[in-house]
Design goal:
The protein has a single domain (12-257), classed as 4-Layer Sandwich (Purple Acid Phosphatase, chain A, domain 2). 25% of the residues lie in helices and 22% in strands. With 258 residues, the chain is an alpha/beta fold. A hairpin with a 3-residue loop joins strand 10 and strand 11. The chain is globular, with a radius of gyration of 21 Å.
Length: 258
Amino acid sequence: MAATIAPSRFSRRRWLAHALWAAPSLVAGDAGWVEPDWIAVRTRRMSDAPKTRFVQFTDVHHKGNDARLRRLVELVNGLGPDFACFTGDLIEEARFAAPALDILAGLRCPLFGVPGNHDHWSRADFGAFRRTFAATGGAWMMDEVRVAPGGRVRMMGFDRSMARLRPEPGVFNLVLMHYPAWADDLPFRAELLLAGHTHGGQVRVPFYGALATPQESGRYEMGAYETPAGPLYVNPGIGTLLMDVRLNCRPELTVFEV
């Protein structure tokens, strides 16, 4: 007598059972070992005939992971932008400032940036930040204005106060700030606002979004928004906070063409 073959439904059920058991491990592996170092490069073209190209990165939260920060510098250098913008939280502890700044010194374009809350809380020497950023041809900006190479882009770097800085006509006014919620309070309109702080939530659920974002995020999680102060882009950051985990929220280097 010929041997009988078990119905295929049985094998499908077994496969499904194994898949359900494996899914948490696969998700955990992606969140803990894949996504945190899988930097996405995304481009936003804001003009039909762009004349200036720059990048934004934010929220590095350097805690000794030199390889991750070196990879970021390699990506920026490979893109060859006119300049780079940093929107806060390079470190959490002052002892990591020197190694992080040493790596950023390898950038081959001017670097402009503003502090984040963790930079302030670390009590690091901002003089070292100023020297490193200036050595690239850029600037560490604390409620200050700088004009980017080429003269088309005028940057306003906000740290504590919104009272002193205002846009100017005839140029591309670019706002650098750490907190996206500030977009709702700025007393003027600019061509582009860049912020960080939210990390995109680090863990995002499909069809829902971030499980949580920090204070001063407002209604903004990540990506592009239209605000009363102008177009806002919230970069989800490079590093992580509390746990080195990202899920459906890759670290990002954003390229802007204006």
